[in-house]
Every structure is written in C-alpha cells, then in structure tokens.
Amino acid sequence: MLNQYKFEDEPELRDLFITVDDPESHITAIETFITYRVVTKTSRGEFDSSEYEVRRRYQDFLWLKSRLEEAHPTLIIPPLPEKFIMKGMVERFSDEFIETRRKALHKFLNRIAEHPTLTFNEDFKIFLTAQAWELSSHKKQGPGLFSRMGQTVRAVASSVRGGGVKNRPDMFTDINDYMETFNQKINLLDKISQRIYKEERGYYCEMKEYGPIHTLWCASEEDLVDSLKGVASCIDKCCKATENRMAGLSENLLPVLHEYILYSEVLTGVLKRRDQIQAELDSKVDALSNKKAEKDLPTEEIGNLEDKVECANNALKADWDRWKQNMQHDMKTAFLSVAENNIHYYEQCLATWESFLTCQTVDLHLGEDSEEKP
C-alpha cells in the first residue's frame, strides 16, 4: 500500500551513504561508555577515499551538532536522542536502550547527509572520516563550552529583553504560532500512543497466560479436549499477532513521534537565534536614530547587519519549507504503516477465530446427526 503513495522532492541520486552499527561497551577507571561504528560510502570528489570506517561515542555526536548550530544558526539541525533516561543509569546500557539510540544516531547522520547545505559542512566530513585522535585534535581548535554558553545566554537575553523583536516578519510569527500548536499536538499524540503501547503490552502478557489455562484444563474435561485445544491455539495465534502489532508501533510510530517532539525544541531554538540577529539590527537602528546630529554614523555596520538578517531569514524560510514537507512525509508514512498493521492484525485474528468456529460447528452437527440415528 505504501508504494501507491508518491511523495515529491525525494532525492533521485545519492552520493553519500552512512551506517551506524556495531555498538561496543568500553569500561575505564573513571567511566563506562558505548561507541558505535560509523561506516561511510561516497562518490564525492572532496573525499580522499570512497569508504571510511570510524568509531564514535555519544559526545562526538553532540560536538557535531553544536558545530553545525554554530555554523548555521538558522538552519534546522536534526535532533539527537537524549543523553540520559529518567529511570536510572542501569537501563542506559541495556540492549534495548542501546539499539534505540543506535537507530536514532543513524537517523541523525542520514538526515544531515540528505540536507542540501549541512551535507557539505567541513566538520561533518571530519566527523565521518577522521580517526579518534584526529577528531580529538580538531575539537580543540573550535570554540569552547563557555563560548557556546555565552551565545545561548545572549540569545535568551535578547529574546526576553523588551518582550521580543520589533520588526519580525509575519512569516516567522506564523511559524512560531504553528510550532506552539504542533508541539501541543505531537506531545499529546506521543503520550496517548505510549499509553496504548503500554496497554497493548499488558494485554499481550495476559494473553500469554490465558492460552495455557485452556490446555491444562483438557486433563479434567475429556469431552471438551478438542474445543479447549482449539481455543488455546487461537489465543496463541492472536498473541503472536499482538506481538507483531506492538513491534509495528515501537518501530514505525513511536520513534517518529519522539523525533518530532525533539524537532519542536530545535525549531524553538532556531527561531530564538533568528530573533537574536533581528534584535541586534533593531538595537543598532535605534542607536543610529538617536545620533542624528553626529557626523560619523555606523551605516556600514547597519548594512552588514541587514545582510546578516536577510541571509538568516532566507535560510530559515527555505529550511522551513523543506522540514515541513519531510515532516508530512514521515507522518503519512507512519500513519499508513499503523493502519496496515492494524488491518493485518484484525484480519489475522478474525480468520483464526472463524476457522475455529467453522470446525466446531461442523463437529456439533455431526454429533447431533449421530444422536438422531437409532
């Protein structure tokens, strides 16, 4: 069914393929961490080789994300999975958690690779190709943590000061309003989907206990043996179908919803950075208007800031359209997958019970016929 739906603007030719796999646990005297193998295959001329294999830990992915944000403050950088989980550090190294994170990191890198601008970022190339010691050396050349913290503080301060920017274009006000609604809806959808999955898991566990009871009952009900075994078989088949439906939810819907919850936070940050650039221009313009009597006015600085605002606006406009199209594609694909899984689940369960009823009805009629014979 999914093949019947065609989405526009899908990339026809890819020249960069990235795989994140093979997680390994590392234990040192001061910490325990996981590294992942990152395999890159490419036909791009700017790469010295056509294939690379490196190992990266989570903090390397964090470094890449921060460098992309510094280089492209008004582009929508794909989100990373959270570093910690609330239930405790033990689960952080469970197989399920590691696999969930691996998939998210794989998605993160491939989102960047598919982005028309981010894919050519030099730090991204270094992340994919440099050995561990080379990457460590390169990290030391970039701005430090306090520099990044300072930028964040200035962004928040400028957005708070005066209650916002004066000359924000209507488009970005509309985007802000859209994201507030989107954030509410996607969080509610995620919350309900998580609850459905939890209830489905509870139902599955009950079903696993329910079937064997009928089988054990056979020992004390000789006349009901066939019926009890038939019911037990049906429950077992429906239990497997339920397990498959749960897998569909956990693989196709829940990760998509969670990723876009993180995307809503990313977009909030992007809009704040755009407003910061706008506020800086507005501040200079106000200062200029108060210095009309002075001969030397910083008109060149104003011009540079106007160019900076225009570039920031154009970058966000283009990336917003692209992000929204990708979001709609991902949501449609996830919802269609859930619909298909549900149809298959109910058809499978219905066929199972109908087959049982047919057999029981035939046996019942045969029994009645034999009783009527002298």
UniProtKB/TrEMBL annotation:
InterPro entries: AH/BAR_dom_sf, BAR_SNX7, PX_dom, PX_dom_sf, PX_SNX7. SMART domains: PX (SM00312). This is Sorting nexin 7. It comes from Gopherus evgoodei (Goodes thornscrub tortoise). Keywords: Protein transport, Transport. One of its GO terms (biological process) is autophagy of mitochondrion. Residues 14-135 form the PX domain. Belongs to the sorting nexin family. GO terms for cellular component: early endosome; phagophore assembly site. Pfam families: PX. CDD domains: BAR_SNX7 (cd07666), PX_SNX7 (cd07284). SUPFAM superfamilies: BAR/IMD domain-like (SSF103657), PX domain (SSF64268). One of its GO terms (molecular function) is phosphatidylinositol binding. Gene3D superfamilies: Arfaptin homology (AH) domain/BAR domain, Phox-like domain.
